[in-house]
Amino acid sequence: MADTLEFNEIYQEVKGSMNDGRLRLSRQGVIFKNSKTGKVDNIQASELAEGVWRRVALGHGLKLLTKNGHVYKYDGFRESEFDKLSDFFKAHYRLELAEKDLCVKGWNWGTVRFGGQLLSFDIGEQPVFEIPLSNVSQCTTGKNEVTLEFHQNDDAEVSLMEVRFYVPPTQEDGVDPVEAFAQNVLSKADVIQATGDAICIFRELQCLTPRGRYDIRIYPTFLHLHGKTFDYKIPYTTVLRLFLLPHKDQRQMFFVISLDPPIKQGQTRYHFLILLFSKDEDISLTLNMNEEEVEKRFEGRLTKNMSGSLYEMVSRVMKALVNRKITVPGNFQGHSGAQCITCSYKASSGLLYPLERGFIYVHKPPVHIRFDEISFVNFARGTTTTRSFDFEIETKQGTQYTFSSIEREEYGKLFDFVNAKKLNIKNRGLKEGMKQSYDEYADSDEDQHDAYLERMKEEGKIREENANDSSDGSGEETDESFNPGEEDDDVAEEFDSNASASSSSGDGDSDRDEKKPAKKAKIVKDRKPRKKQAESKKGKDPNAPKRPMSAYMLWLNANREKIKSDHPGISITDLSKKAGELWKAMSKEKKEEWDRKAEDARREYEKAMKEYSVGSKAESARTERSKKKKKKQEKQMKGKVEKKGAASKSLSSKSSAKNTNESFKSKEFVSSDESSSGENKKEDSEEEGVASPPPSSEESASGSD
Fold first, then answer.
1. Going along 38-143, which residue ranges are E strands?
2. Mean pLDDT over residues 546-570, rounded?
3. What is the pLDDT of residues 16-47, one digit of tens each?
4. For residues 482 and 527, is the Cβ–Cβ distance under 8 A?
5. Are 269 and 262 in contact (CB under 8 A)?
6. Please, which residues have CB within 8 angstroms of residue 579's CB and are 6 or more apart in sequence?
7. What are the residue boundaries of the HMG box domain, all occurrences included (predicted)?
8. 285 with 373: CB under 8 angstroms?
9. Residues 692, 695, 697, CA angle at the centre, nearest 5°?
10. What is the pLDDT confidence band of residue 143, given thresholds at 50, 70 and 90?
């Protein structure tokens, strides 16, 4: 028999993944070399305790158990290789290679057996599955239930993360089967064990993520969170950063611990541990160490007996144990004086803290973005209201964060902060334009200026002017197009010769014809007040004199550049505040000089206003005269049109009378033949558009003569 056996394309199972490699069996032991990493596992022959041959998914497999409890699994063998391996084990290792088939009944209840570092779930005498306890990262207990969590394998596409076992209660007194199960797992699992006494314990701390109240036990190498439902053990090596952030109400403090890798609860990952403290809570703390150990380990950063605010004690202890700096907000101050900005991220409202090297948002979900990973930021107008705006951040990896519903008063502060940190602003050109308008309005009495609002006002003025132009034009067209005298051809009046024809065509047609002028008349009535309203909205006359500045504004315009040079980089709002302080501290004599200048400007303004008012009165008088003249012309034109209509009516009545009875002459014709007053009355009646039969008869007779 050969002294060695070699097998290619053998797979070793490690933490749930199969690693391809070569397996070599020799007199000295078993050697497996990983093809991907080149790592070599060597098992001495003297350490082998048991060998099992069984059928698996990839053909047949070999399971080796060592005397110290380790388990090694190799898959990928052919069925014909069993005899060769069995003989080799007998000859060189003096072991029987036992054949054990897995149970494939599909049952989910059975017996758990602990053998070395292996948990085996058996049905009868056949194993269903086996769990290497070295893969277990966490073991938690509940009522009649034990939960095993496993280390995540980055090499595997799909990893088993959790298995739960239901442990039925037993009648045995003094033995809790759930606790016994958990202790067997923890004794062999790769779980951080709380060996020894804790350095200190903080009771019932409020935790926002994961939510609940936890007892925090501080151990030399890890942090233990103990809650009513879950326990978490956090090694100090997984702590990336520490943050101490004041709440906006100035009565609470956030203490944030950034973790990598995160703590896990099922499929949920907690990358941040957030604790909330009240500033009023105090504590006296005594470390469970003697003074010499404290001095030797912490080198003066901690003492055996300490007292102070609870958040200060927790942050101080964590800083000493983790050996990392605590990040606090920088010099940013919002509109209300707080070091954070109220906003919304996704569906929850929270606080955004601009830091010296990044942004952090608390609390749901917590987000930390460093400046060096930001591609650009963007200021966007709020989608629901103009009283707020959105702050967008896009990272170099393409991830976008949108913090919405930020009050517009925070815009200037946040924009100055981003600009000072030299972050790339996506719409910088637009924002700089807005900032220029902000400078132009710095002389106003308001300390804060909204660039969005000013831009909307400008756009509104442009739209209003366009509306005024279009309404003026449309109003004139409507007034000119509606003239009752000129529409006689379209509308048949009672006294017209074609009145009977229009009425006989049908009631519907006559109704429509009669409604036409009424509809247009209504339009004219609606247009006229709208036109006047538009004229009243035109605003100030650009030729009117401008109001004079106050003494303070005259002084500020003269000294603005000096203040800027004395304080380089000062913002607009800070410049206004500084100017107010300087003006308040100025002596009375200096103020009187600017008061005299303001008085001179006021006199010049009053003089210019008098001249302007005289000119405007003359202009209004000319306008009034032109309006009266236009109305007179329209009235005369209307009278001429009515006369023309009456004349046509009279002619038609003459022709009708002549056709019916040419020899008929009325008594009135003989008596009023030489009367001039009757002719005058006839002309008056013609002007009013009324045609009476007697004058028509007179006209007929005179015409026949």
1. 40-44, 48-56, 59-66, 71-77, 97-99, 111-115, 118-123, 126-132, 136-142
2. 86
3. 556 778 888 888 888 888 776 667 788 888 88
4. no
5. yes
6. 556, 559, 560, 563
7. 545-613
8. no
9. 105
10. confident
> Encoding tokens for residue 23?
């397996």
The Cα 315–Cα 254 span in angstroms is: 10
Cα–Cα separations (whole angstroms), residue 120 to 12, 114, 128:
19, 6, 8
Q: What is the phi/psi pair of residue 545, to 5°?
A: -65, 145
Find residue 222's DSSP bridge partners: 235
Distances in Å between the Cα of 243 and the Cα atoms of 246, 316, 318, 359, 361 are 10, 12, 11, 11, 11
Local confidence band at 489 (pLDDT 50, 70, 90 cut-offs): very low
Q: CA neighbours within 13 Å on the CB side: how many for 139?
A: 22
What would the mean pLDDT of 279-289 be, rounded to a whole number?
Answer: 88
Query: 341-421 belongs to which CATH class?
Result: mainly beta
Query: Residue 502 corresponds to which amino acid?
Result: S
Q: Considering only residues 653 and 600, tell me which one the structure prediction assigns the higher pLDDT.
A: 600
- CATH 2.30.29.30 in the chain, residue ranges: 4-99, 341-421
Tell me yes or no: is domain 4-99 CATH 2.30.29.30. yes
Q: Residue 216: which of 111, 314, 131 has the closest Cα? A: 314
Amino acid present at 670: V
* Superfamily of segment(s) 111-187: Structure-specific recognition protein (SSRP1) (2.30.29.220)
DSSP helix, strand, coil percent of the chain (3-state; round to 5): 40, 30, 30
CATH architecture observed for domain 200-327: Roll (2.30)
Tell me whether strands 97-99 and 48-56 are parallel, antiparallel or unpaired: parallel
Kind of pairing, strands 252-265 and 341-345? Answer: unpaired
* CA nearest to 224, candidates 290, 287, 273: 273
